[in-house]
Amino acid sequence: MIKACLFDLDGVIVDTARYHFIAWKALAEELGFEFTEKDNERLKGVSRMRSLDILLEIGNIEMEQEKKEELATRKNDHYRSFITQMKPDEILPGATEFIKELKENNIKIALGSASKNAMTILDRLQLTDWFDAVVDGTKVSKAKPDPEVFLKGAEELNVLPGECVVFEDAEAGVEAALAGGMKCVGIGTPDVLGKAHLVVSGLHEMNFDKLSKL
């Protein structure tokens, strides 16, 4: 029996990918090279420091760890300046309606995101009060596909992993859900998220009936 739903944030509830892209692009320009949307695909579902390593690899730049930390902070400063301007109309189609339906059916709800900015985004979108638990990058140390973020979410909701359904848009996130012994709904396309139990293009295609049949 399904008792809880755990949601990734970026690409599932809101699309902050473009803000990440603009921030990484700005950093690349400061370093003297171009960062394209195609390059940005390599960063999807990847931690900030690993993303920086990929960025530097694209720019053929090597540097010490201390300097990398400075650059990662600078990128995050760029990103935060964008997300603090976000508005509720940026919530992806169907997300609010589906979460409301889950609440009406007594399904617990948690956020499971690697982002350390998750609370800022939820506050800006006026969604914070909808979540029974928020597990973000400030609470976990292991990146997806490690299931830590989702297992901690289940723990905070006081439910078993097998009673949870995870909503994810990244392959690493789907793998994390499965590794944690949870059902998974992929948000995207079957060619990328084929390991998920169900794949939909967005939460506007979800309802409680579909969830119950998983």
UniProtKB/TrEMBL annotation:
This protein's UniProt keywords: Carbohydrate metabolism, Isomerase, Magnesium, Metal-binding, Phosphoprotein
Catalytic site positions: 8, 10
Site (Important for catalytic activity and assists the phosphoryl transfer reaction to Asp8 by balancing charge and orienting the reacting groups): 113, 144
Single GO MF annotation: magnesium ion binding
Cofactor(s) this protein cannot do without: Mg(2+)
SUPFAM superfamilies on file: HAD-like (SSF56784)
Organism domain of life: Bacteria
Residue numbers binding Mg(2+): 8, 10, 168-169
Catalytic activity: beta-D-glucose 1-phosphate = beta-D-glucose 6-phosphate
Enzyme Commission identifier(s): 5.4.2.6
Cofactor binding note: Binds 2 magnesium ions per subunit.
Protein name in UniProt: Beta-phosphoglucomutase
Organism of this sequence: Marinilabilia salmonicolor
